Amino acid sequence: MIGVARQKPPRLSVDLFRAFYATRPDDERWQLIDGAAMMMAPPTPAHQRIASNLERLLNDPIERHDAQFAAYQRLGVDLTPTIEGYDPEPDVLVIDAGAGETAEQRYVERFYLAAEVISSSDPVWVERTREIYKLHESCRYVVSVQQDRLYVRIDRRADAGWSEDILTTPNAVIELTDFGLRCTVADLYRGTALQPRATPRR
């Protein structure tokens, strides 16, 4: 019996992917990864809490330090024409203030930080997307946060290239000087099972 070769699905362009995404219900979250449309699993409470914490931890000092920036959740980044086959939607972005305030806007062209909250079961393309963010000329930081253990990886761009810090203890300091942010890993995980909030006494 002769086996039949299984054909790979055709690669989607960004334009075709966006036309498809526009037809999907608002509660569905899709990304284009290496030319393939990927439906994201619904986020866990821990995922949502970490992303919300990071957005707030960024916006609070930004308002005091340099109001030209703003942090948002779930905006897409437009990587074309430099990078084809990818249309990601980071969990948190830092962009130019006002750039994400247009009604119905889904994408921004410039971003200075992209953050992903990930779990140990996420597929290997998550790592590839991290490298894709680093190719964008405006990106200064890529932050990866594991949702099921204390693990924060911060990639920073400098004149000499990219460097990496890995933080795994509650008191380890997260410092992003471009945005005036200085906090601890515990602050990022606050409200999750890894850093529960103190129960008020009655």
Describe the structure concisely for a colleague.
The chain is α+β, with helices and mostly antiparallel strands and 202 residues long. The chain has a single domain, classed as tt1808, chain A, CATH 3.90.1570. The chain has four helices and twelve strands, in the order αββαβββββαβββββα.
- Determine the structural class based on helices, strands and strand pairing: alpha+beta
Task: Tell me the series of helices and strands, N- to C-terminal.
Answer: HEEHEEEEEHEEEEEH
- Measured by DSSP, the beta-strand proportion falls in 25-35%
Strand order of the largest sheet: 3-5-7-8-9-10
The total strand number stands at 12
Architecture, CATH level 2? Alpha-Beta Complex
User: Level of helix content?
Assistant: 10-25%
Overall shape: globular
CATH class: Alpha Beta
Description:
The chain is an alpha+beta fold and 202 residues long. It has one domain: tt1808, chain A (Alpha-Beta Complex), CATH 3.90.1570. The protein is built from 4 helices and 12 strands, in the order H-E-E-H-E-E-E-E-E-H-E-E-E-E-E-H. The chain has a 6-stranded mixed β-sheet, with helices on both faces. A two-stranded antiparallel ribbon has the order 1-2. A hairpin with a 4-residue loop joins strand 11 and strand 12. The chain is globular, with a radius of gyration of 18 Å. The N and C termini lie far apart (74 Å). The N terminus is likely disordered.
